[in-house]
């Protein structure tokens, strides 16, 4: 039987603070120190600097709790699941792989950890997943299909790294998918696990964590201007979901980013582009105003980072890497 191991960097929960007028804050249950909500919300929306900080935290927990996996002769593979466009946990895993590989080289262990990208059948861009009940989350995962080559999993050390565990629905879906393919070991890791009594009574607390700082297209524009922006599904949705707000801050986005947003939406697929049709129309109109015309063929390519693209496999387990890889995202 495949060993199933759980690792978390911290346990968190909501606490009322008398000093703050009984407002609730999120604290680490072990240390009673505040959980870095600003960094977390920024990470969820593509702030690469914040993502790297959490990656260091995740790597330390993995190296401490499962060194036999992190330093194994057979390097661990970090499993990431998305459709078309990476999500926050994809970038978190990518940066964590870098930290794990630094540690492996420091100990003289040959071979690098890498990413194993699992294709998801649906992006489920209806109701925000973070606001869904436990029942809705379970139904969401059961309605999806995941595509991965069995030979990419069989007898391999696998790590699935997610940001915060709320109900555990995602973890259970990953276990249902991977365990029948008999990996050597499966580690389920999180940067934080939310207090289960609180999470099960109010799973939408996840939405509060996600949007505690970043909650509008103006915030995404600030991240783009900062030069430390990894475009993911949540950020793209925030750009497109309010056409009026997008129109008001279009001038803050360079032309190349207007094109990248359109190309990224196309990567996700028709379900997504139809839902956010009005926002995409705003982008196309803005390109036309700036250039005097709009040609779909000139939108330009958008590709995730090389590390993420190299983790993608087809059904035969071969690396799928088509066209030029753009690492500037």
Summarize the entry for a quick read.
Pfam families: PRTase_3. This protein has 15 helices and 8 strands. The protein has 329 residues and is of the alpha/beta class.
- The counted number of beta strands is 8
Low-confidence stretches: 309-329
Q: Helix tally?
A: 15
Q: What characterizes the major β-sheet?
A: 8 strands, mixed
User: Would you give the CATH topology of the largest domain?
Assistant: Rossmann fold
**Mean pLDDT figure:** 84
CATH architecture of the largest domain: 3-Layer(aba) Sandwich
Percentage of residues assigned to helices:
40-55%
Assigned CATH class of the largest domain: Alpha Beta
The SSE order reads: EEEHHHEHEHEEHEHHHHHHHHH
- What's the shape? globular
Assess the beta-strand content as a share of residues: 15-25%
Total domain units: 2
Separation of the first and last Cα atoms: 40 Å
Radius of gyration, taken over Cα atoms and rounded to an integer in Å:
20 Å
Overall SS class: alpha/beta
Pfam families: PRTase_3 (PF15610)
């Amino acid at each position: 039987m495949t060993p199933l191991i759980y690792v978390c960097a911290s346990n968190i929960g909501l606490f009322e603070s008398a000093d703050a007028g009984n407002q609730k804050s999120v604290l680490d249950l072990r240390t009673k120190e505040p959980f870095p909500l600003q960094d977390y919300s920024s990470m969820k929306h593509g702030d690469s600097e914040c993502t790297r900080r959490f990656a260091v935290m995740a790597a330390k927990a993995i190296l401490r709790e499962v060194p036999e996996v992190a330093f194994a002769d057979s390097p661990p593979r970090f499993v990431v699941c998305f459709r078309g466009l990476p999500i926050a946990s994809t970038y978190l895993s990518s940066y964590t792989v870098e930290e794990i590989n630094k540690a492996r080289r420091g100990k003289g262990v040959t071979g690098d950890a890498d990413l194993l990208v699992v294709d998801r059948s649906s992006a489920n861009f209806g109701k925000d997943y973070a606001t869904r009940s436990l029942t809705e989350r379970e139904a969401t995962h059961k309605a999806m299909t995941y595509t991965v080559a069995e030979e990419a999993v069989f007898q391999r050390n696998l790590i699935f790294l997610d940001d915060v565990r709320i109900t555990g629905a995602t973890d259970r879906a990953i276990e249902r998918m991977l365990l029948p393919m008999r990996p050597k070991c499966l580690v389920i890791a999180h940067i934080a696990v939310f207090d289960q009594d609180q999470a099960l009574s109010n799973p939408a607390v996840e939405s509060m964590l996600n949007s505690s700082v970043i909650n509008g297209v103006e915030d995404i524009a600030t991240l783009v201007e900062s030069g430390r922006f990894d475009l993911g599904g949540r950020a793209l949705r925030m750009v497109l979901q309010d056409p009026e707000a997008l129109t008001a801050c279009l001038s803050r986005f360079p032309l190349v980013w207007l094109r990248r947003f359109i190309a990224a939406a196309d990567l996700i697929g028709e379900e997504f582009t139809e839902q956010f049709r009005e926002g995409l129309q705003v982008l196309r109109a803005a390109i036309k105003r700036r250039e005097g015309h709009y040609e779909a063929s000139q939108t330009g390519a958008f590709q995730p980072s090389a590390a993420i693209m190299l983790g993608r496999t087809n059904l035969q387990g071969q690396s799928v890497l088509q066209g030029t890889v753009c690492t500037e995202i």
